[in-house]
């Protein structure tokens, strides 16, 4: 049965730590935060994902994205904001208009359900995995980036090129732009080759 999504109720009624348990996140306490690796970014840094119970917010340094419990679910499950909210609301029967019990099929995270369906299709490019290969080097320092700034902005050296991320309007990385220090040439991979499902609202700008 269709029902309305009560976004406000979800954000206030579901603590970020409960969402972490629902999403099977491995987190540990660090002062006022919960820290852990980010399975969505395939990043095993035990501090890359930060959950702040006091504000009921999260932030992922690997993807440079954050927000509410709904944003957290959307990020970890790899689904749209609406779908993440619907999944979370299924765990809150009292917020549903029809007051019926959630169906067992809907209680399973969408990403897990998709995996069980035998969908082995994977995107040809993983921004997080590529970003993990980047290192701070003399070539990066020569461009004026400190090690702290390079880590913050996901800039680094790999196989003869200095790479920096190019992002979608929502802040997520679409692909990386490479700069060859020896020739001064910049190469921009075709995003359609790296990510087949490029959002239709993303416009590839021409250089001035």
Give a nutshell description of this structure.
The protein has 208 residues and is of the alpha+beta class.
User: Which spans of ≥5 residues are poorly predicted at pLDDT below 50?
Assistant: 95-108, 110-123, 191-208
Question: What helical percentage do the residues reach?
Answer: 25-40%
What form results from the Cα inertia axes?
Answer: elongated
Give the integer mean of the pLDDT values.
76
Distance between the termini: 52 Å
Strand tally: 9
Secondary structure tally, helices = 10
CATH architecture of the largest domain: Alpha-Beta Complex
The CATH superfamily title of the largest domain: Zinc finger, CHC2-typedomain
Class computed from helices, strands and strand pairing: alpha+beta
Quickly name the level 1 CATH class of the largest domain: Alpha Beta
| Series of H and E elements | HHEEEEEHHHHHHHEEEEH
Strand arrangement, largest sheet?
1-2-3-4-5
What are the main properties of this structure?
208 residues; alpha+beta; DNA Primase, Chain A; 2 domains; five-stranded antiparallel β-sheet; four-stranded antiparallel β-sheet; 9 strands; 31% helix; 18% strand; elongated
